[in-house]
């Protein structure tokens, strides 16, 4: 069973339905015990960084998430669930993140490009994780975000995308994979990722 | 490069598509989910349901439609029409929709957009603007705008130089608000995207209002979806290239199988527009 962490941030329904469509058993949960005994953990989320961290803290989920990651459990972060893994975000002043990875979450620089970065854009692999098996390089995925992560250790960048700047759109280190784009909104290629993650977690 | 988006729109009344796709593979042209799956398979970048259900009691049907759609379709889904409370938005998002589009409620009470955006995130708040070329006689402004000195800096009421005015009620009621300034104000208080419909062009099939689209797209720094008037593929190109829109919304051009979405994408791609093929 895969635990989808429900902390009141955004549309968990489509993540849940995406896994179901891919034939993966999931449980949407706020219970630390579910996170700790799950085969894999998914941290989804859209919205503001500060609310995200505030809700995780209030629900007592920060400890269980960190323990799950440290224990080597397969972990998938989506959008805000990627950003939350970093040291801090500059959204609304400064706000501390989970600090699993050193680095910052920064806003797209002012330019003629629209913010949020909303729509389908290309992900170029830098270091293709196994859960991307069956997915070609330079595929389109669906994005909606105004901030992006800047890892201190560039070796964790697994995929990059261009939007005025080249930014990290996917990270991978050991058991942790996280995407800035939304697999659950990225049609067939996205569902393939969810399916692969389910298989990866089941083998773990 | 970020691709430009093509968004088919389905009008839904009492849970049924009003102008469904006439196509041999569609068993039930009135079933929103069948229509949605068809468009998804053709490569639609997003989907929009416009709920034109008149009675309030029957609005719950839409939640069921959204829930069923989200089970089979994995591209972003926007629902518009009749959204008047934060609970309406919460229910739709919980049912599996990704964005809501808000029109009349924004005009009657802009604070609602600020609240909705603070609660659910601006990424899911689309403000729909129905705009029409100014007649020179501005409509009656909504009560909140009357004598509101604190808002005077916004300068959003119609001016002598106002080219397009905001309308509600399907283009019947002028609101005395300048459409371009309104778009900028909506961005400022929390809209994540603008769905811009030219009421002069809606239903005409003579093309989008390119000047309007460009004026709004250049005035704001959030994505703008052009709507109203698409009758042929060249119109889509004009809105994206000349109008600088980030996406185009169209209904009849796809419903009546004049063109498939794939044809539209190939046409635009050949003209140098970035498309997800």
Task: Report on this structure.
The complex is a heterodimer of chains A (204) and B (277). Chain A has 204 residues and is an alpha/beta fold. Chain A has one domain (2-203): Rossmann fold (3-Layer(aba) Sandwich). Chain A is built from 6 helices and 13 strands. Chain A has a 9-stranded mixed sheet with strand order 2-1-3-4-13-12-11-8-9, with helices on both faces. In chain A, strands 6-5-7-10 form a 4-stranded mixed sheet, covered by helices on one side. Chain A starts with a strand and ends with a helix. The relative contact order of chain A is 0.18. The model of chain A has no long low-confidence stretch (mean pLDDT 94). With 277 residues, chain B is α/β, with parallel strands linked by helices. Chain B has a single domain (5-270), classed as Aldolase class I (TIM Barrel). Chain B is built from 10 helices and 11 strands. Chain B has helices at residues 32-42, 60-72, 86-95, 104-108, 111-120, 179-189, 210-219, 233-241, 252-255, 261-270; strands spanning 5-13, 16-17, 47-51, 77-80, 99-102, 125-133, 164-168, 173-178, 193-198, 224-227, 247-250. In chain B, strands 1-3-4-5-6-9-10-11 form an 8-stranded parallel β-barrel, surrounded by 8 helices. In chain B, helix 7 links the parallel strand 9 (193-198) and strand 10. Chain B is globular and about 55 Å long. Chain B starts with a strand and ends in a 7-residue tail after the last helix. The model of chain B has no long low-confidence stretch (mean pLDDT 91). The chains are: A alpha/beta (204), B alpha/beta (277). Chain A binds chain B through residues 10-11, 13-14, 17-18, 20-21, 46-48, 113-122, 140, 142-145, 162-163, 184-188, 190-191, and chain B through 1-5, 40, 45, 70-72, 74-76, 93-98, 120-124, 192-193, 221-223, 246-247, 276. Chain A: Keywords: Amino-acid biosynthesis, Cytoplasm, Glutamine amidotransferase, Glycosyltransferase, Histidine biosynthesis, Hydrolase, Lyase, Transferase. Chain A: InterPro entries: Class_I_gatase-like (IPR029062), GATASE (IPR017926), Imidazole-glycPsynth_HisH (IPR010139). Chain A: This is Imidazole glycerol phosphate synthase subunit HisH.
């Amino acid at each position: 069973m895969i635990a989808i962490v429900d902390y009141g941030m955004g549309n968990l329904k489509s993540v849940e339905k995406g896994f179901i469509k891919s034939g993966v058993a999931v449980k949407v949960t706020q219970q630390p015990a579910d996170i700790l005994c799950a085969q894999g953990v998914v941290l989804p989320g859209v919205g503001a960084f500060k609310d995200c961290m505030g809700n995780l803290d209030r629900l007592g989920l920060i400890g269980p998430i960190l323990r799950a990651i440290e224990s080597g459990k397969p972990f998938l972060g989506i959008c805000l669930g990627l950003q939350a893994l970093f040291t801090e975000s500059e959204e609304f002043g400064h706000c501390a993140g989970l600090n699993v990875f050193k680095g910052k979450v920064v806003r797209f620089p002012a330019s003629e490009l629209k913010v949020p970065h909303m729509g389908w854009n290309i992900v170029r692999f830098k270091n293709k994780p196994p859960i991307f098996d069956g997915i070609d390089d330079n595929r389109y995925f669906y994005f909606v975000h105004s901030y992006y992560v800047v890892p201190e250790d560039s070796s964790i960048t697994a995929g990059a995308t261009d939007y005025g700047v080249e930014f990290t759109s996917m990270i991978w280190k050991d058991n942790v994979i996280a995407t800035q784009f939304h697999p659950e909104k990225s049609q067939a290629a996205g569902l393939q990722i969810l399916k692969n993650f389910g298989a990866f977690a089941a083998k773990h | 490069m970020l691709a430009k988006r093509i968004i088919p729109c389905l009008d839904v009344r009492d849970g049924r598509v009003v102008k469904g796709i006439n196509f041999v593979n569609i068993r039930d042209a009135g079933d929103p989910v069948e229509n949605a799956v068809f468009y998804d398979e053709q490569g639609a970048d997003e989907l929009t349901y416009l709920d034109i259900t008149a009675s309030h009691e029957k609005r719950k049907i839409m939640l069921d439609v959204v829930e069923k759609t989200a089970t089979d379709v994995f591209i972003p889904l926007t629902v518009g029409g009749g959204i008047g409370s934060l609970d309406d938005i919460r229910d739709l998002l919980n049912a599996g929709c990704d964005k809501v589009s808000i029109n009349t409620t924004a005009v009657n009470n802009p604070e609602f957009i600020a609240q909705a955006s603070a609660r659910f995130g601006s990424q899911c708040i689309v403000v729909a603007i129905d705009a029409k070329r100014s007649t020179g006689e501005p409509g009656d402004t909504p009560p909140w705008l009357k004598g509101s000195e604190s808002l005077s800096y916004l300068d959003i009421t119609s001016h002598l130089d106002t080219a397009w005015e905001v309308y509600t009620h399907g283009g019947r009621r002028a609101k005395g608000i300048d459409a371009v300034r309104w778009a900028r104000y909506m961005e400022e208080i929390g809209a994540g995207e603008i769905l811009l419909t030219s009421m002069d062009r809606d239903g005409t099939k003579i093309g989008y209002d390119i000047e309007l689209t460009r004026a709004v797209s250049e005035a704001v720094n959030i994505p703008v979806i052009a709507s109203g008037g698409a009758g042929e593929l060249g119109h889509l190109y004009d809105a994206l290239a000349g109008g600088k829109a980030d996406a185009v919304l169209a209904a009849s051009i796809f419903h009546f199988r004049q063109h498939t979405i794939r044809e539209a994408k190939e046409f635009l791609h050949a003209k140098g527009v970035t498309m997800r093929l």
